[in-house]
Amino acid sequence: MTIRDGKAVLAPTNPKDEYQHWIKDMRWSTSVKDHEWYPAFALVNKATGRPSSTRSGRQLHPVQLVPYNPDFLDESMIRMESRNVSNGFRCVHMVNSMYLNFDALHGVYDDTNIVLWKWCEGDNQRWNLEDPALLLNSTSIRSIERIQIGRRKESDGKRM
To answer: Which domain holds residue 134?
Structure first.
């Protein structure tokens, strides 16, 4: 997942693309939990210092970056990961609506927009926030090495 034109989109893994580096800010994790007691986090783009946000909280709303005040709890940028739904992959949903999940709109391809969508059990809604457990300046902030979506599949030239 990377940032293009201020929006979150899918992209082939490229460690040199600074916009593919994310921080999982866990500072709200002890006080905000979902109904299954999974902790809250903000997914902050390392290059921009801005978190992913879904201001409207409506289905099909694109995931965008917004200014960040880490001392203010803004529900539009707080996320939760669900239980394991398939081979270590989880849903990433809003703190105030477990029914709206990150979704790679129309499939797992380069430049696919990330939006909110109701859970429909598709590979395009299964995420793996790979965490090398590298702590940065605080036990509440973790660097994410990469973000994967769906199950690992053979490449057909276009599919990620």
So the answer is: 2-149
